[in-house]
Amino acid sequence: MMKNIVKVLDGLKPTILMVVVQLFYAWVNSLYKIVVLDGMSSRIVIVYRFVFAFAFMAPLAFIFERKKRPKMTWTTLFQGLLCGIFGGTLAQTLFLEMLALTTVTFASAMNNLIPATTFVLALFFRLEKLNWKVAAGKAKIIGTLIGIGAAMLLTFYRGVRIPTASFDVSLFHPHSSHVAYSHSTSDGNTLLGALCGLGFISSCSLWLIIQSKMSERYPYYYSSTTLMNFVASVTSIGFALCTERDWSQWKLGWNIRLLTVASAGLGPAGLNVVMIAWCVRKAGPLFVSAFGPLQLLILAFVGSFFMDEMLHLGSIIGGVLIVCGLYMVLWGKGKEMKKKNFLTASQTLHVSSSPSSVEIIVKSSIDDDKSNHNNSICTSDVADEDHQDSSENRNQQMQDEKNQVTSGNV
User: Are 257 and 386 members of one domain?
Assistant: First the structure.
């Protein structure tokens, strides 16, 4: 009984960890919204996020990969630089601006467009093929179009307000409640936030493409993540020093700001990377991507009940369509991966079963002749020895007879 329970729990490990990952993301995004509307500079938030992440990941890279990682080449360093810019500083700057101008539900919905945007950019860089004739290719194309259309619907159509129950609990400070409401209801802010969201998902898609190429050359995730966080820390510090003139923004006390930057550094940029890498190795990248909509549901609940955000019909329809488009893209990619793995396995089986791999042992007749010759030599040697023994015996007998004759004469 206990063995069955342990076996079931072991099979559920990837699912449990991915739920924890999405909870971390939802928690940090909610804190982002709170501190930004509380007056903290988004550029300072990004600086502390990557500084905390670098301080957390560097010891892990030193402990687990110090002895087995090779020296970094200039190509790897350049790819790490691009990852730190596109996946770090630029992506997080645009994301926080989008979060400040819109709602956490909107930001989470836009986040689910990253797979579709990655597919479009992969087509542009000729890393993907437009296979319209097969079902998998059609699913990816249709899913991408649905996702883009849903994002436009989410941006330009609000619809009627959906009444939700209230817990009479707000995560905002009383003076910032009106600010949150004005940010979530302004059409101009929503449009500007959508543009920031477009830049965010494009930056993340470029980062994923570069990261995949970097992983082929340098498959050491702790070290590559540490390099990315270091680059993001340096670039975000430089950007913040050039744009932020209020030095009081750099101060962190024992408040929500410290909790936010510490959670962002240890969670999404730290522990989440480790858990996602483990889940990708155990269950595959598509399994990991399928949990993205869970964050959308969590943030829709938190935003409506605890952050004074209004839930509209357009948000619900757009969110549902984005999730549908996401799963169509993932389904198409999954079919292509299965076909690719099947072809690879078939080619491997064909090579292993080919006649060239069969070892044939041929016994030459020369070996038999040599063996017979050796046997004949051994036989002749034995015969010679027997002949020599018989000669010695005759000589001994003749000597005895001679002695007897001699003794008789005496």
Answer: no
